[in-house]
Amino acid sequence: DAMVIQNPRYQVTQFGKPVTLSCSQTLNHNVMYWYQQKSSQAPKLLFHYYDKDFNNEADTPDNFQSRRPNTSFCFLDIRSPGLGDAAMYLCATSRPPFLAGGPHTQYFGPGTRLTVL
Amino acid sequence: EDKVVQSPLSLVVHEGDTVTLNCSYEVTNFRSLLWYKQEKKAPTFLFMLTSSGIEKKSGRLSSILDKKELFSILNITATQTGDSAIYLCAVYSGGSNYKLTFGKGTLLTVNP
Lengths: 117, 112
Hints:
The complex is a heterodimer. Chain A is an all-beta fold.
């Protein structure tokens, strides 16, 4: 089945130790998103890729970076995790916004829960 | 700044009850409104509403959008324990770059 896959599902890291979260998709969607969701809060968009075009949200800290080597994969790098970065990180994909009938539904992966010690 | 507000924040009901979840929004250049169900993992898509007054229905779940009053409701009839989840409302808005803004969600607990 076509889907959005995130690895790992649970990640524990130490304060200041870089960590990389992975997302892959078999939907062949052009757009991939990374969200941060803290407990009892709404998912917050960090950035998204439209093909290779990177779009950063204005309030996303520099500590968060992303790479998209190809259509299927997208990575979230946290260069120096702080205690405040502990959260669920959600990857989502969608068809291009301007495609006929858009905007289009975003499909989410299962998320990676990050713990920072 | 775009804003999506859901109410109530949490709700506890008994199996068989009917519930109504609310979502109001203030956004620039509204495009569509989406409802998601989130259990202990990622949100799963329920409905997308673009046109006012047209009900979307899937089994015991239904939703309707009022673009004049800027809100949507999600109805669940004959609730089951499996309906227990966080229900997220999100709104697509924007001009050249669509943006999805989420509400904080309503935590629904259905007790046997």
